[in-house]
Design a protein that fits this description.
Length: about 260
């Protein structure tokens, strides 16, 4: 998992980096809120943000406010780590859906505990097989078939979104694409892909609520999440039973289809 540290104090940033990397998180650093927004654009795989409040150029709370205005970042967990612990700051952070607030100086143990709790609020990439079997009343063999069908569906969406995310201009999402994305949301709920389901709900794609100028970022965020789900599923297979290569269309001779195709 990848964590973005937003901190202008190099000593504090180093302390955060050492603690998080020791717990096997990948770490990206930004020196202020403006740099953090640019970093989020470049790294859609970021799972969580740990941010200070008082920083040059753009403060932490102002940065969080802009993050929450973007559909693809609405579910991104944020931990506020600051020495500014007055009531007004805590209340403003809470109003921006920041449920995790720690006060400097804090221990490594408190930091890691808070980070784990914040990441957990996004849900799991894919629920365990036994849990899905019990919830749906399936036989284990039935789950295996369902997981393979979902893997093929996700694989096709990865191929399509890889093409879409690389474009500089985007057309409006048409009704066929919305139906396809709604089917993906239903499938995520069925298999327990909680993070994917939460992201799709935040994007509001079936209802067409993603602003046109936000489509590029939404495609990238969805692509990053689908790749996580794909890695957790069994490899999709061709009609003959051979596994498909990662991030390629099911038919190697066919061009990647748009969502809804």
């Amino acid at each position: 998992m990848t964590i973005l540290i937003v901190e202008d104090n190099p000593v504090n940033a180093e302390m955060l980096r050492l603690a998080l990397e020791k717990d096997r998180y990948a770490v990206v650093h930004a020196g202020d809120g403006a740099e953090a927004l640019a970093t989020l654009e470049e790294h859609p795989e970021i799972d969580l943000v740990v941010t200070d409040v008082l920083m040059p150029n753009l403060g932490g709370l102002e940065m969080i406010e802009r993050v929450r205005q973007r559909p693809e970042w609405r579910t991104l967990p944020v931990v506020v780590a600051t020495s500014v612990a007055n009531h007004a700051t805590v209340r403003q952070a809470s109003s921006l859906h920041c449920k995790h607030f720690i006060v400097k100086p804090f221990t490594v143990q408190l930091l890691l505990q808070t980070v784990r709790e914040a990441i957990g609020q996004r849900g799991v990439v894919l629920q365990e097989k036994a849990r899905v079997v019990g919830r749906l009343g399936l036989e284990p063999e039935g789950y295996d078939q369902l997981a393979l069908a979902f893997a093929s569906f996700v694989h096709e969406r990865v191929a399509a979104l890889t093409s879409l995310s690389e474009r500089t201009e985007h057309e409006e999402v048409d009704p066929a694409q919305r139906r396809d994305l709604f089917a993906l949301e239903e499938s995520a709920a069925l298999l327990g892909a909680e993070r994917l389901g939460n992201l799709l709900a935040a994007l509001g794609w079936p209802n067409g609520t993603v602003p046109h100028d936000a489509l590029g970022g939404a495609y990238k965020a969805l692509l990053a999440e689908l790749r996580l789900v794909s890695a957790a599923l069994p490899p999709p297979r061709r009609a003959g039973g051979d596994p498909l290569a990662a991030d390629t269309p099911r038919d190697a001779d066919a061009a990647p289809a748009e969502p809804g195709a």
